[in-house]
């Protein structure tokens, strides 16, 4: 009797253990009762009836990545290109993903491949290389709409690589090189043009400034000559007035003054050590005599005007009698 009870207890424990199911996080188990889908078991502990209920499919509910193998696609301009892509998707309804499609991964791969050929086959080679975002958007829209009955959400479709033929790649490389050389030559020509314009502007401004400087210098030079002429005219007028008032005495004074300056220049010459005077020295002496006469007349007039008698001899208005001295010689070492 005890052995029967023990055996019965063991069978009950085995039955209970067969009915306990633990669903892992990120997965959903489909529960089938007598072969019919009845429940989608969420992560956690679940109790089922053994021999009546069973776990049908274990569906991964996390976002998954499906790699699309390389495809050879003919573009609208008859160019053969190789294309690789990836698809990101997530199962939203475990029941549909398990029972609406036989092989979910293979179905998504086939659907993406065929639509990839359709989308890229309607474009030229240049468009396939430059409009990847447009290709991705069109593929995403088409594939997501087609997989929605399966309880799947396509989150992203990306083109990994586009491989044009080798000869087209070489032609594209030559075209790119020619385009860059063209841009470089255009930029260099624009730089030369700008440099020439700036240089011409600089030369123009320089010429204008030089002309203005020459004009200003000419104005100032003319003004200086005018002032010098005015000063010379005033000096000449003063000399004329002095000559008119004093007669020969003033003339002798001015001649002696200029003669003395000329002799001083000879004496200070840095190139001559010996100076010979090939002129009559009596002219200078006569001029000095005229200066003395002029001085006595001035002093005599001053004494007469003050009431004092003049002690000098009356002026005759003539220079002293000339004397012929020996020619002076000056040695400068």
What does this structure look like?
The longest helix has 81 residues. It is rod-shaped and about 185 Å long. It has 8 helices and 10 strands. By secondary structure, the protein is of the alpha+beta class.
Outline of the structure:
The chain is α+β, with helices and mostly antiparallel strands and 333 residues long. It is built from eight helices and ten strands.
Q: Tell me the fraction of residues in β-strands, as a range.
A: 15-25%
By CATH, the superfamily of the largest domain comes out as Band 7 domain
Spatial strand arrangement across the major sheet: 3-2-5
Helix- and strand-based class? Answer: alpha+beta
Biggest beta-sheet profile: 3 strands, antiparallel
Number of strands: 10
Portion in helices: 55-70%
Give the tags.
alpha+beta; 333 residues; 8 helices; disordered C terminus; 3 domains; three-stranded antiparallel beta sheet; rod-shaped; Tetrahydropterin Synthase, Chain A; 57% helix
How do the helices and strands line up, and which of them pair or pack?
Elements: H1 2-19, E1 20-23, E2 27-33, E3 36-41, E4 44-47, E5 53-60, E6 64-74, E7 80-91, H2 94-99, H3 104-121, H4 125-130, H5 132-147, E8 152-163, H6 166-246, H7 248-267, E9 274-276, H8 281-306, E10 329-331
Antiparallel strand pairs: 1-4, 2-3, 2-5, 6-7, 7-8, 9-10
Helix pairs in contact: 3-5, 6-7, 7-8
């Amino acid at each position: 009797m005890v052995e029967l009870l023990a055996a019965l207890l063991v069978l009950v424990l085995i039955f209970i253990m067969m009915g306990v199911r633990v669903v892992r996080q990120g997965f959903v188990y489909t529960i089938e009762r007598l072969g019919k889908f009845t429940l989608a078991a969420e992560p956690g502990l679940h109790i089922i009836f053994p021999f009546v209920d069973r776990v049908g499919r274990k569906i991964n509910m996390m976002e998954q990545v499906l790699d699309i193998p390389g495809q050879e696609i003919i573009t609208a301009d008859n160019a053969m290109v190789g294309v690789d892509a990836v698809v990101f998707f997530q199962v939203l309804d475990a029941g549909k993903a398990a029972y609406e499609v036989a092989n979910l991964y293979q179905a998504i791969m086939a659907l993406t491949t065929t639509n990839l050929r359709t989308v890229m086959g309607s474009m030229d080679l240049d468009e396939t290389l430059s409009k990847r975002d447009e290709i991705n958007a069109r593929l995403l829209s088409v594939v997501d709409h087609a997989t929605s009955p399966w309880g799947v959400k396509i989150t992203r479709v990306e083109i990994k690589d586009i491989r044009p033929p080798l000869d087209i790649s070489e032609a594209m490389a030559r075209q790119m090189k020619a385009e860059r050389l063209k841009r470089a030559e255009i930029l260099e020509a624009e730089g030369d043009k700008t440099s020439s314009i700036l240089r011409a502007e600089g030369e123009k401004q320089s010429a204008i400034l030089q002309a203005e400087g020459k004009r200003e210098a000419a104005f100032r030079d003319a003004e200086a000559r005018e002032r010098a002429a005015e000063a010379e005219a005033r000096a000449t007028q003063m000399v004329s007035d002095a000559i008119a008032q004093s007669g020969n005495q003033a003339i002798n004074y001015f001649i002696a003054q200029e003669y003395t300056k000329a002799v001083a220049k000879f004496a200070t010459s840095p190139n001559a050590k010996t100076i010979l005077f090939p002129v009559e020295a009596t002219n200078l002496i006569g001029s000095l005599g005229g200066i003395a006469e002029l001085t006595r007349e001035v002093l005599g007039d001053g004494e007469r005007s003050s009431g004092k008698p003049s002690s000098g001899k009356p002026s005759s208005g003539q220079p002293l009698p000339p004397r012929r001295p020996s020619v002076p010689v000056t040695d400068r070492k």
